[in-house]
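Aim 2 progress. For DUF749 domain-containing protein, the working sequence is reproduced below.
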Amino acid sequence: MEFVATLTGIMTVKEAIDAGYGYYVKIKAKEENRELREDDMIVVLNIVNTTSFQVFFLDKGLEHIKEELKNINVRLNYDSEKAIKRYLEGLKR
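Predicted structure tokens for this construct:
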């Protein structure tokens, strides 16, 4: 069975912690052996029909996010993928 992830938000680490996602942010940072900076940009995704949230650092790019999701049998929904893509394209301008 494949699960689907939807975008909860694109925010800074500080905003995510303030919004109650600190636990997920800290787990991801520890997983990646990464020092947290308040201004790092992250994506928070919810796995549909679960209480599971996944956090990804945006500096790794959209393809990295999709690959990590694929590894846990999760697909990023179309609208969420487009929103992340638009955000990343806006950063390049």
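The CA atoms of residues 14 and 38 lie 5 Å apart. This observation will guide construct design in the next reporting period.
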